[in-house]
Amino acid sequence: MPAIHTLTENREFQVADDWPRVALRTSEEELGHRMEADYWQKQHNMDFTLKDQRMANRYEAYDVGRAADEETLARDWAREEQKAGAVKNLLGSLQERFPNLQLGLDRIMKVYSN
């Protein structure tokens, strides 16, 4: 006579049969998360390495004889002030047209001030 199993017993057999697949799926997810974390750590390290290399190249390329004089510095400063003035004028006109812009600017300033 064939064995008769209840629903609970059948589920226990099914769970026991699925255990290797569930464990493998869990292991796969953990490995995926670890790989993603390691990837971003690698990117972070690469960013620092490239930044250090750029700084080293700039340091090696620096020539005291080519240092900017006061006139060049003043001209560069005036050019940057002119650019800043244009941005301030643009922001002023945008604030007139969009009153809620200040709220967004305050949020951005908080992000960059930390």
Give a structural overview.
This protein is mainly alpha-helical and 114 residues long. It folds into two domains: 1-60; 71-114. It contains three helices and no strands. The relative contact order is 0.03.
Number of helices: 3
Measure the end-to-end span: 76 Å
C-alpha Rg (nearest Å): 32 Å
The best one-word shape is flat
If you average the pLDDT, what whole number results? 82
Portion of residues in helices?
over 70%
Number of strands: 0
Give the H and E element order. HHH
Label the structural class: mainly alpha
Taking the sheet with the most strands, its summary is:
none
User: Strand share of the residues?
Assistant: under 5%
Low-confidence stretches: none
Query: How many discrete domains?
Result: 2
SSE inventory with pairings:
Blueprint: H1 7-61, H2 70-97, H3 101-113
Quick structural summary:
By secondary structure, the chain is mainly alpha-helical. The chain is built from three helices and no strands.
Keyword list:
flat; 2 domains; 3 helices; 114 residues
